[in-house]
C-alpha cells in the first residue's frame, strides 16, 4: 500500500524487503573491496570450496541461493579443496 498522503492506494508489493535491501547494501560495499588472500576454506551449498569467507560472500551476492554449508573444504580432504 502507498503511504504517500493524497496518493491513490497501491496494491503492488514492494520491490525489496528489509533483508534483501540490507543484503544489496552489503553486496554493493563488498564489491568494491578486495578479499584477503588468507586460506580459510568454506564450503558452499553449491558444493564449491571458497578460499575464505570473503570470497564466499562475494559469490553469495551473485548467487543468492548459495548458503554456507560448513567451514573447511567441500571434499573433506585438506590437501584437495
Automatic annotation (TrEMBL):
InterPro entries: Kazal_dom, Kazal_dom_sf. It comes from the Eukaryota. Residues 21-76 form the Kazal-like domain. This is Kazal-like domain-containing protein. It comes from Pinctada imbricata (Atlantic pearl-oyster).
